[in-house]
Amino acid sequence: MSGRPKRPQRKKFDMLIVLSSLDVFIGFIFAVVSFPLITGSVQRNDSYGVRNKGTLASDEVWYPVNRFAGKVMLIYGIVLFLLGLAGVIMHLNKIPIPIPLGFIIGFGPLWVMLSMVHVDTYQRKHFPEDQVIAKKKADDAATPDTQRS
Questions:
Q1: What is residue 98's three-state secondary structure?
Q2: Of 60, 61, 66, 70, which Cα lies nearest the Cα of 30?
Q3: 10 Å Cβ neighbour count for 94?
Q4: Which of 12-16, 23-27, 59-63, 99-103 has the lowest mean pLDDT?
Q5: 119 φψ region: left (φ > 0), alpha (ψ -120 to 50), beta (else)
Q6: By the 8 A CB rule, do 77 and 29 touch?
Q7: How many helices and strands, by DSSP H and E, does the chain display?
Q8: Is 3 left (phi over 0), alpha (psi -120 to 50) or beta?
Q9: Domain limits of the chain?
Q10: Which has more pLDDT, 12 or 120?
Q11: Residue 8's pLDDT band (boundaries 50, 70, 90)?
Q12: Are 23 and 105 a contacting pair, CB within 8 Å?
């Protein structure tokens, strides 16, 4: 013994609890934000909903794509919330988290990007952008100048 005082042990920082909490938060926000989209109460705008050339060109595209996006957001939000909640509960009860579950929880925010890919695939399949824009141009050409303004 050298007589040196022992340093107090640092509390180990667990990144998984941070990621689990983040998953709970993001999942909750996703679920809450999805309801106006599902009900169709969001009109075409530049700040909320799926916004691209196709959806902003026509209500016939805007509402179905955003309803689908809302349903996808709700499903992914619930899954993300439950995964994060499982991680938090397991951490608080000192239950070891299996490595595969840790990876799923840790990469939870990537689920958000996956949901966007899902919505984009739906829109491309059901509402091809070139057809939507061509229809809008045809509608605009058929509308007299006096009605446009």
A1: coil
A2: 70
A3: 6
A4: 12-16
A5: alpha
A6: yes
A7: 7, 0
A8: left
A9: 15-128
A10: 120
A11: low
A12: yes
